Protein: Glucose-6-phosphate 1-epimerase
Amino acid sequence: MPVSQQSDKTVLTHPSGASAEIYLFGATLTSWKIANKERIFLSGKAILDGSKAIRGGIPLVFPVFGKGKAPHVTASLPQHGFARISHWKLVNSSDDAHTVTAQFGLDHTMISEEYRKMWPFDFSLIYTVKLTADTVETHLKVQNIGDKAFDFNTLLHTYFSIPDESKVRVVGLSGMDYVDKVLMASAKQDGEIAIRSEVDRVYANVQSTDLQILYGNEGGINLRRNGVSDIVVWNPWVEKSAGMADFGDEEYHRMICIEAGQVAEFIALAAGGSWEGSQILSVL
Ligand SMILES: O=P(O)(O)OC[C@H]1O[C@H](O)[C@H](O)[C@@H](O)[C@@H]1O
Structure:
């Protein structure tokens, strides 16, 4: 079966051998394999029972990035919003000669009463995962199905599995301005990004549609954005890693988050409006 449901997760299998797994909790993609090699990082300490956001994979940030700030309506929501900690439904699946597709849905009737009170808007999210022999595409459609405008942030918060943080280079952001959340300062990217300490940066309005995450002489990933303008780069390094109960102290060596989305500014969505954005990951 190209798409099969295994209790709490959906498994996509491509005739080439490529595969992907998506938990219904958060519609979090936790695995993407090509040539039997895992490309996505999932912490060995990740909690997978739905009691906490999954540490790793591609958690979906919506409708707020980080903690909302009063007086904005997102101020009381949990960090990164409710999409990654709500139970989604598998709404569709299909396959043809090239692509295996699964679609997941979440709307306002499916989130907890508590979150509904915090964020009282009628919305529908459709998240589509398309697997081919050598790519995976993750696409989010946000619809305002109510009669009040709302605004939102969103991110495809992708944790990549890497051989060693010291070998990683992120290419394609040179010349871009960023906000450094560690130093609480603004700066301009000069050349490639290397990880030598905690990195937590927001690059707004990135020009190049493609960026590369290179693993020294061990290949890497090309990330292509469609319809989303910002990139967040995160590696927690030593202290932050030690402070996270669901992340191993040494796991920062084996992951980097490169997160495509809209976070520098909220996107305003009028009643009846819709928005879509996606990323396509391919192995280099
Ligand atoms: O611990 P979480 O809520 O999953 O957030 C994990 C990380 O997400 C993003 O990358 C933010 O830029 C970081 O500041 C944050 O630490």
Q: What stands out?
A: The first helix runs from residue 113 to 118. The longest strand covers residues 255-269. DSSP finds two helices and 21 strands in the chain. The radius of gyration is 18 Å.
